[in-house]
Each structure stands twice: as C-alpha cells, then as structure tokens.
Amino acid sequence: MVMSALQAGNKGTQACITAASSVSGIIADLDTTIMFASAGTLNPDNDESFADHRESILKTAKALVEDTKLLVSGAASSQDRLAQAAQSSAKTITLLTDVVKLGATSMGSEDPETQVVLINAVRDVAKALAELISATKCAAGKPADDPSMYQLKSAAKVMVTNVTSLLKTVKAVEDEATRGTRALEATIECIKQELTVFHSKDVPEKTTTPEEFIHMTKGITTATAKAVAAGNSTQQEQVIATANLSRKAISDMLTACKQAACHPDVSEEVRAKALYYGSECTTAYITLLDQVLQVLQKPTAEQKQQLAVHSKCVSGCVTEIIQTAEAMKALMY
C-alpha cells in the first residue's frame, strides 16, 4: 500500500524518467541511421518520393510543439497531467522520427549528405526534447520563481527553435538552390546549442586522454579547409557536406575538451585554459560559418577574402588547444 501510494504521488516524475529513456534510445537509433546514410546505404524499399512523406513530417512536428506546451504547463500542474504530457511527447517523437527516416530513405542514397541533414534535424529535436523532459522533471511541483522554472522555459525555447529548424529543413530539402544554405543555418544553431551545454557546470560522466583531445582537433582542421573551399565555390552540395562535417567535428572536439579538462590529474590552471580555448575555437568556427553564409548571399571577392582571415583564427585556436593538451600530458605522465 505504501509503495502504490508513493507511485501514485510520483506518477508524473516516473513518466518523465520513462520518456527520457525512450528518447535516449531514439537518439542512439538516429546516430546509427546517420552512419548508414553517410555510407550511402540508406535506400528506399519502394518508389515513394519525399513529397509522399512531407505532410506527415510537418503535421507530426506541429503536434510535438503542442506536446512541448503541455510539458511546460504540466510541471506546474498535477502528477497525472505531467504523466500524460510526458507519455504523449515520447509517443510523438517516436512517430516523428519514423516519418523523417522514411522521408530521408525515400530520397535514395544518391544524395547521402541531404539524407544526413534531414536526420540531423530530427536528432536535434529529439535531443532538445530529452533536455526539456529533464528540465520538466526538475521543475515539477516547484514555485514559479524557482530557478528550475527558468531552466524549463529556456529548454522549451530551444525545443521550439529546433522544431522550427526541422520545418524549414523539410521545406528546403526539395529546393536544390537553398538546401545547402539551410543546412548551414541549422548547423550554426546546433553548434551554438552545443556551446551552451559546454559552458554549463555539468561534469562529464567519463574522462579522456590528452591524446584523444589532440586527435579530435584534426576534424576541426579538415572541416575548416572544407568550409573555405565551400565558400569559394558557393556550390550547394559542398555547403551541405561542410554543414554535416562541421557539426560532427565541433561536437566531438567539445566533448573531448570537457572530458580531458575534467581529468583528476589536470591542474585548475590547465583545466581553465583547455575550456577557454575549446570555447574560443568554437566561437571562431561559428564566425567562419557565418562568413560562408554571407558569401552565399553576396559572393564578392572581398567577402571571399574574409574566409581566409576567419580560418586563420580557427587555426590559431587549434594550435592553442594542442599546446594545452601537451601541458596536460606533462601533468599526467
């Protein structure tokens, strides 16, 4: 009787935990799908086109926005309403993921980069939903002026931003003249969100070695060269490839940076330097991608010259990161 009473009183919180677990599984599944798409093996089973799935994607995405509103209001409501909101959002994101995957598959593997753009867009939504569910769980039953309520509102804003980004991506997918630009805009927004998470005080679950941290900077170097080349060529295909590569390179570097900086053998001074240069490198890279966007809108010689200037800033930050990682090695070994 005590157990059932506790469970009844905790119904919403428990539903949030279950929903978060489901969303975590969805993100892992999408990561696998991105691997298949990147390898060029995501092929349709029938003759359906992307247009056959477009309306389903848009309709389901809009339903998820309604679920977002219910989650936010559910935090200040009863456990029953919170449970309903959590269950509904988990169900809708599952459905949305399925229809986006069908849409991406229907494009055929001749254009794997665009498939990856679309799957990344729904992955961003799923990731934002995981953060929102977590924030809802923490805010449940708290007063309106509690800090957790501000965190909840912030998570809800990110969620709506990412759903809007998905809708824009879906509309741009069939327009060859704009889909590279749209992919780049989505990547810039994604990197900004990654940087916000990086700046949080959350400690990573595991640590990594300075060698792994240095290894992750190679992706930044490759992506920077790709970004400059895409800006100079202004070809949408190259811009799409740059967007996909940039997203992964920065995400991997930020993860490795925080994991290496939080190693117990690293001094406070070196930790602060690593986090500072990881952040500076990301900011410089966002500026470079912004410049690529400007070139796409106005491809003048002056605008293209700025690409080299911004790429040098990124390169300088990478050099500082490597030197900081070398200082970590001296402390550890």
Q: Can you offer a commentary on this structure?
A:
This protein is mainly α and 333 residues long. It contains eleven helices and no strands. The mean pLDDT is 92.
Q: Using the 3D structure, state the CATH architecture of the largest domain.
A: Up-down Bundle
The tally of beta strands, per DSSP, is 0
Helix fraction, binned, reads over 70%
Low-confidence stretches: none
Query: What is the structural class?
Result: mainly alpha
The number of helical runs is 11
* SS strand fraction: under 5%
- Taken from the alpha-carbon principal axes, the silhouette is globular
CATH superfamily of the largest domain, please? Talin, central domain
The SSE string, one letter per element, is HHHHHHHHHHH
Task: Look at the structure and give the CATH class of the largest domain.
Answer: Mainly Alpha
Q: Major beta sheet, specifics? A: none
Average pLDDT over all residues: 92
What is the gyration radius calculated from CA atoms? 21 Å
Distance between the termini: 57 Å
Can you tell me the CATH topology of the largest domain? A middle domain of Talin 1
Number of structural domains: 2
